[in-house]
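Q: I have 378 residues here and want to know how they pack in 3D. Can you give me a structure?
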Amino acid sequence: MRDLQTFDRSLKDLEYFADFRRFLSGKGKTRKVARVRKRQARFNPLTDLNENQFRIKYRYTKENLRRIIEIVRDDLEIDYYEPLKKEQVPIDLQILSAIRLWGGTEHPHLTAMAHGVSLRTLGKITRRVASVLSSKASRYIRMPATLSEKERIMCSFQGVANMPQVIGALLQTTVRFRPGNCVPNDVEDLFVDIPLNTSEHLHLQIVCDSAHKIRDLDVRLIEENTLGSDMEMFAQSKIKDRFEQNEFRGRILLGNETVRCSSSLFTPVQFPRTQSEELYNHSHSVTYASARKCLNLLINRFGILGTEIIGSHGSAKQTITALSILHNMAMEWADPSIDMELNISPLKSYFFNPFNSELKKGEESNRTQFIKTHFSNK
């Protein structure tokens, strides 16, 4: 299966390369084309591609990508340091090339060729764009702070399947990254299989709202000598501390079976025995689907998250933060470039989880009382 996927991706890359060559042949003739190709000519995707082609390659509409460019343009110009001045890469193309690389629609070499830069310069560009975007995390990734915000999010969750008091849904996954340059140095490097043991993993924990926006993000390196379980990662996260400090005053998160039920994080009942517990599980399942759809949308827009991020631990973390911010922008602007009606497979049957066998009496009674209060008369 993996070989078939690799072959299919190679065929698509050949199509992209053919498109790029046709573009060059249409922009110049003979000696002029030779000189342009020699210095890796750049083009303007916002004008040279039609809307459909643009959405496929850049995962945004032209209008929304122009908005992103304006949001980060000033910061990139301030930080326009010497190595990139030599190639004089326009700010617009820096942002466009980074987003196209993160989309994972083609090999990095083709992305570099399309924007008229070297692979090494593309690596520098993506690091800079990720750094600038991630610096805006406090503005674009945040839990609701005011009473009206909290009430609005609770009402939106309750409107999904009548699950009250929910202020977020928590989901966790892992992302592979390989320490080194952001992109390979040579074309040949792109086609060399990377041994799995050279990769490391980052644990990604998100809390999202019912509109599929990421409200909290926690990215941690999974150490070799630790299990890195979802429960352990949640225990170390700041969002857990915020709930324990009663910042959200009785409101709750929804989690799946990989984490342990607590006073602020409610999971499904393992073995429902009453109609109330069945109703609670059904409501939990439908409401929690928001988190799974959020993750699917994120990975579908930025394919690099489903493969491997190349770079240091710090740069990989900045990249994930930047992609989460870009995802929230797309959700806020209702960008249609990624199909919003992704097929979300139904949640698996509730199965035994060893963590849940260690429930403290008070933690279990919180959920029991919650079910009794809100689901017993339905």
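Q: Anything worth noting?
A: The two ends are 47 Å apart (CA to CA). DSSP finds 16 helices and six strands in the chain.
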